[in-house]
Specification:
Radius of gyration: 14 Å
Strand content: 5-15%
Number of helices: 4
Distance between the termini: 14 Å
Largest sheet: 4 strands, parallel
Number of domains: 1
Shape: globular
Order of helices and strands: EEEHHHEH
Low-confidence stretches: none
Length: 119
């Protein structure tokens, strides 16, 4: 049940499994057909306020993760839907951030993996 991460600007591959865009905003400069998505989960992304506060500043990363986890705790139906998808097979979270270590897809993956280990 692996969760992989891939930038929206990378090509899709058969190993990706279910491809889920986990961004509130559509990736700049890409056509919808170019992403080969199975679903776009806008509402699993951080709130606009949290996204703007974080502004991809690595010094804010620990606090961003904590605040995002609090938001995810309130999105039980969406989290349950993603967990079900992950339990069924490979899932790739598609994201648009240039920073591949400090973004909401990384935080979401860690959050869900913790939930999977606890279940």
């Amino acid at each position: 049940m692996p969760i992989t991460l891939k930038r929206a600007y990378e090509d899709a591959s058969p190993e990706d499994g279910q491809r889920v865009l986990v961004e509130r905003l559509w990736p700049r400069g890409l056509r919808k057909e170019a992403l080969a998505l199975d679903t776009w989960m806008k509402d699993i992304a951080p709130s606009t306020e949290l996204r703007k506060w974080f502004a991809h500043e690595p010094t804010k990363w620990p606090e961003f993760q904590a605040r995002y986890a609090t938001e995810l705790d309130d999105k039980t139906a969406l989290v349950a839907s993603l967990l079900d998808m992950i339990r069924q097979g490979s899932v790739t979270f598609v994201f648009s951030s240039r920073d591949q270590e400090h973004n909401n897809a990384v935080a979401l993956k860690a959050y869900l993996e913790a939930r999977l280990q606890g279940s």
